[in-house]
Amino acid sequence: MPRLSPEEPDNALVSRFVSRRRMLALGGAAGAVALSGAGAVASAADRNSTGTLDSVKAAASASGACMSLTTEQIEGPYYIDYELFRKNVVEDRTGIPLLLVLRAVDSATCEPLRNAAVEIWHCDASGVYSGYTRIGNGEGGGGTPPGPPPSGTPTAPTGSPGGPAGPGGGGGHATPTDDLTWLRGIQMTDHQGFVTFRTVFPGWYTGRAVHIHTKVHTGGSRTSDGYTGGRTCHTGQFYFSEDAVEATADTAPYSANTVTRVTLDQDSIYPGTGTQGGLLKLVYDKGHIERGVIGHITMAVDPSATNDGQGAPGGGPAPTASPSPTA
Question: Distance between CA 282 and CA 196 in Å, rounded?
Fold first, then answer.
């Protein structure tokens, strides 16, 4: 079996991939492009967050309080099973540096989940997902995935949150339009249940509040083929406070996003239950958010459950005077 590197080729080398499994079949023949933007993001995060990161982890580790299950939510149409093992998912995207600190614990015992796989994916500052750049962000009535979901893929009822009537698709999986992979990654948790991702603060697109998607996989293992075996025990979404999102709106490149933004209270998928519903705890300079943000949360999950995100969302208040939400 080939020896696994700690992290796959990352932002200084990679701007686009085919899928991981296809890349392996091709002998790893993926184009390598040097990028400077990701290095700047990593440097900013290093300068501003090292001490705070240690404090965040220490506080989370010291907490002995048990908690309710973290809310399950829909997967959405833009998930791609690339299994790119890497901490830095920025590639060539620009935006406010975001250090995402995630901890997975067993909801019954509150013990950390070791060697679980935590996956994230989200849109860039302009509201576009890698793999779906031709779909765009819904501006001007666009954002509808081309064609119906693949046969056998569950969809939410028409007109429901994330359903086919919503801009950007819905519960069904949209067909990818390209091989781009920015702002997607997966990491194995350490002995305390932590993973960290270097990314950028997400933007917004038609019908949804600012959010990040996540999955937690348990019972399997990392191999040369990616993450093998086990189950997806949790599918969720992370959210950001309105104060933080508003602070980004006047900062480039977010200021160029002209899509009408749905607030957290208007979003019909956010359940309105704070941390349990995926609301991140944020650390940043209130006067200079452009210097970088740390977002952290502990996910309490049932490691023996299967929650693949194909069901209905937990649901919050329906949006008013705004387009139907997408996932």
Answer: 14
